[in-house]
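Reproducibility note. Readers wishing to regenerate the assembly model reported in the main text can use the exact inputs given here. Chain order matters: entities are listed in the order in which they were concatenated for prediction.
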Amino acid sequence: MDFPSCLRPSLFMTGPLGVSDVPDLSFMCSWRDALTLPESPPQNCKNAVPHLAKALLWEPAMPGPLPLLPPCLDPWDPGVTAQDLLFRGGFHYRRQPQVMLDVTEQLSRFLWDHGDIAFAPLGKMMLENFRLEGGRNRSKKMTVVSAKRLLQDLGGHQPWGCPWAYLSHRLRRFSIVGGPVLGKSVSHLLGGLLHEELATRWEQLLLDEAFTGGALAWIPGRTLQVGQLVYPAGGTLDRLRFQEVSLTSGSDPQVLGDPGCIHLQGPVRQVVTSTVQGETLLAVRSDYHCAVWKMGKRRRPAPLQVLRVEKGATGISLSPHLPGELALCSRSGAVCLWNPQDGLQQVYKDTETLVFRDPSPWRWADFTTHPRVLTVGDRTGVKMIDAQGPPGCGLLLFRAGAEASCQKGERVLLTQYLGPSSPESLPPTLHLICTQFSLYVVDERLPLVPMLKWNHDLPSPALLARLLPPASPGAPHPLFLGGLGGQVQLLHITGKEASAPQLAGPPQSLPSPADSLSAFPLLEPKSQKQLQERLEAPTIGLASAFLPCASTPAVWLFQLSAAGDIFYQHLTLQAASSLHQDSGPPSDSRPDCHAPRATVPPVDQRPIPSWTARATACCSRWLEALLQVPPASPVWAAPTFSHRRLLGRLEPRELEEKVPQVLREAMAGGRLLQQRDLGLLPQAELPPAPEPGLQDELSERLEEAWEGRASAWWRKQQGMASEPGKQAKRPKRRTQLSSTFSSLTSCLDLPNTSSLPPSLERTPSEARVQPPVTPYSQESAQQLWVQGVHSERQQTLRDYMAELPLPKGTPTPGHVPMSPSRASRTQATPSRLPTPGSQPHRKRPRMGF
Amino acid sequence: MHSYLQTLEDSDSSKRQAAPEIIWKLGSEILFYHPKSNVETFNTFADQMKNIGVLNYLKISLQHALYLIHHGMLEDASRNLSQAETWRYGEKSSSQEILINLVQAYKGLLEYYSWSKKKMELSQLDKDDYAYSTEAQNIFSHSWKTSVNFSALIKTPGVWDPFVKSYVEMLEFYGDQDGARKVLTNYAYDEKFPSNPNAHIYLYSFLKRAKAPRAELLSVLKILYQIVPSHKLMLEFHVLLRKSEKEEHQKLGLEVLFGLLDFAGCRKNVTAWKYLANYLRQILVKNHLGWVQEEWKTRKSWWPTFHFSYFWAKSDWKEDRDLAYEKAFVAGMLLGKGCRYFRYILKQDHQDQRKKIKRMKKSVKKYSIVKPAV
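Running the prediction on these inputs yields the following structure tokens for the assembly.
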């Protein structure tokens, strides 16, 4: 094999990531790699390179990918999103918003939603301290408390730290005495577990490494036009499908027959195929299992072997040299050569990462040009290991450090052997290494120094890469680089035997499935959202098929989404001449494009591809089928059991019955529902009249000054101004840990009513939930809201409060229970009563931060 | 980033500093690839970008010069580099120094280019010509400047192939063999440099040109063998080793061939297979069965499927008969005459190859390391 006779100049620095003070030569433009100094004097052809480069352009036929198969009938739910986990309120004052996991809210949600898990053990423990049944007869024991009373008192309690929540003495006493015990034991344990869970979920959201390598494969068939797509389907991705597809240039791919299906016992994470010496093999990685099939005659898969990976498999790859050989790596840090005939051979094992410490257990293995040398990769680097050599030795091929001028925090996401491609266009010694920022092409004969570095700037982790054979002998290889978010980039890599690999032609960005939204008819918001979610589902597989025999070389790109849909796009190589001549105005010249076109030279004068009637028809059909799919059932619904059976009937609430009725009447009459319609207008409760305006203040001040009392007035004014400020801050101090207990106690330190409920100032999104009402009816509106929306939650709370104990020595409550409708009237009286032992509620446990 | 130009005035200093680089990157890429852009536009853009934020001046100048070289405007590029070379900002930091060295080296490369052009012209001129002496003088004046340009940079660890190559060529031209040798030795053996195969290849070809003793050549190639056992120079290495009288070298000669053929990229290298076939016979005749067995021990498990499978027998015979013949011979030697590859080729019974195949059959029978079961 030839080694490039002259490599491009590059600095070589050793050291950790991005700390050394050396110029980053990789700042250089992508075309730097295309530059060669004229070597021997008569150089007429030196301009040939750029012209060739500029001519390289693969044109997508449509503005976006189209669905290939009817949508999978299992409903799909996007799952946890970043918004679900992040801290929503506050921190606006920071210059750079920091990502914060909102553990407190998650915890309180958890307590609400999964109270059975959170409180059942405690409830069981304290069962003897409660009397669930029974009427008036007082128990002799002071340690037994009637749950009914407690529940009655709780009836008006408002969650989420509402300052106007009503609190009875009994509740207050209960929470003060019980608080430390309940708060600590439950929330400490739960908080810890929940925090751990959240952190893993968050990491998974940031990088879902399970699908590294991609779960979609293209197996070329006997003829060039026909091939098979292998992909997982079903809601849980546990059905491996084999779909025959026929490709003809100039038309859409045809699906031939029904797909073959193999039902597996776990989700398919990675599908790899390779054809060695005429034998096509298919390897599949699931979370804890790996399996190999051999594609027999008539393209039927025959199972060869299944392997169980105890710690979880992270990567599988098929040897391009020896039929039936695989490299396998597991979370335990072991890398094995696997041959269905000879079994497993452990090649490498290290629980530590290669270069520096990184907590990720992700490992990756691939082959090199030497059939007995493997590359072993983790987040920090890639090493070449000789399977026959002594264990532990090897050569670092890539190091996430100054050698490759990496940035701080840069980590390896994918390594791939580019394979023994045709030697006249690329040497068989190249490896592709993707990080979250860049793409590197490394030659195994010159370790540590990347031959090519390119900033891909994909917004989502680049976990998928496919290299295609050149369109014509000697032409560059198209390389597709796919992000988890659906973005695909197309690069052209060339490197004849005697020259280093380089990018040829401008890198292209291809449309993602989300760009196809415009091909679908406009829907009502809910269905539109469903469609959009479906199109934006993460891309978990990428495959490409190539049709070299056509008059213009064509490539089909298939993308598999996490929802189980396959999208395809058709790319054709643009002829060199059509790029340089003006091809006229775009076919769909929109009116708003005219003005800029007249003045500014257009960036690109190629005709913008537009949707054909067939494409939109295909999309509408697909959409119709999609809308038939039942929506995903919610993961969890609040329990709706009733305590009434246990406790006997509580008094029906007048308000609860009256409100819907009045509302209905108002709607029927087309009137505005007002406070007085409900008959609840609390006279004593009117919020303070608007502060006197500035002018009044000014005249007042002038008056006072005239009479020589200016300083006294000023002191008074200052006192007034500072008071509301303090009060406004108080609810902010309160954490959002609205675990049931802390919100009970938190009501204690609210002196009066003039501060706004925190639910209004916390987040805009929460505020939006509330109906738009006049400021006068704020309180009752909130009551309505609480009683309406959260009645289930309230009930859960009531149920669990029923099982909470009342500590020993508590005086029997003589307080008359109040109905919730009256609660708002009495809340103005300060509830700061002198209580012995009122300290404990200050130490509210704060989870997480 | 909302607006590129807005970012240039961002109050956050880190953002403000990063902005010109991003703008430059995007702008230069677009201008490079856009079918309608021209050199003037690029020049204007580069000149403006150079002066936004002092820290980028050198980098942008360098890339600007590369762009100009790419478009064949060598003089403009050289002028650009000269300007950048003299540029200083604040205290000279190490990063600045490396960049300046790089700028100088590229300038040196341009000078080398015009020098070698002159050299070409000179070789075409008659020695008695009047113009000859002035041209010769010109060349000499060049050399001195260029060597200064290169020498600073090639002391910094890195891959400097084009610079080293042209520097050595100039040194050799002026008869400074020791200087050239020193440069090359340093480039190849300095531990701070990456293990660049080219450094050893340059050194080897220099030594070969200088007619260095064989021992010296062997030691260079031995190191290259350790770095890149798949390089085509390994065949030369093998020939050198075969000629050597030392037994140890002869053994290494076998190892080198086996090592070369391990690589998928060398699978169809006829010369290597031919060498191996000949050498195997030669060694087995000399009764060094142990050497062969030692090499074969680690390859026994995978060479048969890797090289000598039925699939390859068919396709090799179809594509390259010479290759198939050599491989069949090796297969017979190593795997015995029952091997599928060997049998397949034997069965073909082609007219032209009949004699060859007969000979092959005989030697396989005689020397194969696998003895048929009695």
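We highlight two features of this model. Strands of chain B lie at 158-159. DSSP finds 20 helices and one strand in chain B.
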